[in-house]
Design brief:
Layout: E1 12-14, H1 21-33, H2 41-54, E2 58-60, E3 63-64, E4 67-70, E5 77-87, E6 97-106, H3 110-124, H4 127-135, H5 139-147
Parallel strand pairs: 1-5, 3-6, 4-6
Antiparallel strand pairs: 2-3, 5-6
Helix pairs in contact: 1-2
């Protein structure tokens, strides 16, 4: 599996007006729900917010990977949001977040969940990549950067 199998251009959003962590999680929930007619944005939001209650998914350096599990989901799905103005996210380094890569996985896919989280964390640990993402001003630019990564996108199927 590679990252292009997890996310498509419709699940990428550039520069929405978001003023809080809660609103950011609502936005990614809406993006993730777009192609999941049997799963509501509210159900996705609940999964993401419940995970945040266990500890922030803000990695630091402006990056967060909100994630959750949904029982009715058949395969992992992702969404990505680049904010113009960072929001407080209780990240490990105390810095606000402007890059959020959200992940939903089926309830019982523990190993796959960890592999995808590792892939995303590796991708966003590349400061050059993050700088490039932060210069994007539209969805097309973001999608090109995300979907054309070759060096860290492979996950065992």
């Amino acid at each position: 599996m590679n990252i292009s199998q997890l996310i498509d251009e419709d699940h990428v959003l550039c520069c929405p007006e978001v003023a809080s962590k809660k609103r950011l999680l609502e936005v990614v929930s809406e993006l993730l729900a777009m192609d999941l007619p049997h799963i509501s944005a509210h159900e996705i939001f609940d999964s993401l917010i419940n995970r945040e209650k266990l500890g922030s998914t803000g990695l630091g350096k402006g990056v967060a990977i909100p994630h959750g599990r949904i029982g009715a989901l058949e395969q992992p799905v992702c969404a990505f949001v680049r904010l113009e103005e960072p929001v407080e996210f209780d990240a490990t380094d105390g810095q606000p977040v402007d890059l959020a890569f959200a992940l939903l996985v089926p309830e019982d896919s523990t190993e796959e969940h960890l592999q995808v989280l590792s892939l995303i964390a590796e991708l966003f640990s590349d400061q050059e990549f993050c700088s490039g993402v932060r210069t994007c001003r539209d969805r097309d630019c973001l999608a090109r950067l995300l979907l054309n990564r070759r060096d860290v996108q492979q996950i065992p199927a």
